Amino acid sequence: MRSNESKESKALPANIKAVLFDYDGVIADTMADNCRAWQRAFNDFGVNITDEEYYMLEGMSPAAIAKELGARKGLSETAIGQIPVKKAEYYRKDNAFRVYPEIPDIVRELKRRGIKVGLVSGAARHRIEEMTPHELLSLFDIVVSADDVSLAKPDPEPYQKALEFMHLTSSETVVIENAPLGVQSAKAAGIFCIALETTLPRNMLTDADRVILNHKQLVELFRF
User: Fold this and answer.
1) What is the C-alpha to C-alpha distance for residues 147 and 141, in angstroms, rounded to an integer?
2) CB 25 within 8 A of CB 178
3) What are 68-98's pLDDT values in tens digits?
């Protein structure tokens, strides 16, 4: 697709049997809190990271994010190993977790239509389970977390594993993402991908099949 207009008008797959959601920035409005926690963890070792440096890696496992950014900043392996633990502690102590208000209705409507829903995230399973309201999390047919894969996004393994668990093919599935590495993971798995501009602008999400502004537009899109 060569233009924003064509990106916005690209048709959804005709026979959707499942929708797979990323977690941070798609299900939950957590990106700013996560970013602040990462920055505090790196600051403990005398290193500053920008919002964009983190946002461009969102979707990786915590260990992979620490390794990538730590290597860029010249940190030792010992420091890199400690940073994810510190990040998790800072996030646990200081967050304003909320689910995007449109998400519960979107998930329930998909389920009502007989469409399976899955959650595919680079987050640790314990954080997903601790933070997400049980009544929402219980609606998902499958959850694939950082603990369930050998290779995190942008590798296709997380989405391939979700397809395997749901006994579906890529052509029957749609992914909702918000980050470049998540989009790359979905596309590497051969899945139609819709990107939300909740974190980054559309010019950083051009690998997606469609780019939309927010969850309100997602509601409109799923009125197929």
Assistant:
1) 17
2) yes
3) 999 999 999 999 999 999 999 999 999 999 9
Half-sphere exposure of residue 183: CA atoms within 13 angstroms, side-chain side? 22
Per residue in 138-155, pLDDT (tens digit) is 999 999 999 999 999 999
Q: Do 37 and 121 share a structural domain?
A: no
SS3 194: strand
- Across 118-130, average pLDDT: 94
Running DSSP on this structure, what letter comes out for residue 213?
S
pLDDT value, residue 11:
85
Examine the domain organization and report whether 110 and 19 are in the same domain.
yes
pLDDT higher than 60, residue 3 = no
pLDDT at 209 over 60: yes
Both 109 and 18 in a single domain?
A: yes
Burial class (CB in 10 A: 0-12, 13-18, 19+), 51: middle
Q: Are 124 and 143 in contact (CB under 8 A)?
A: no
144 and 184 inside one domain: yes
Reported for 157-160, long-range contacts at CB under 8 A and 24+ positions apart, including other chains, are 157/185, 158/120, 158/121, 158/122, 158/185, 159/20, 159/120, 159/185, 159/186, 159/188, 159/189, 159/191, 160/189
Residues 125 and 15 in one domain: yes
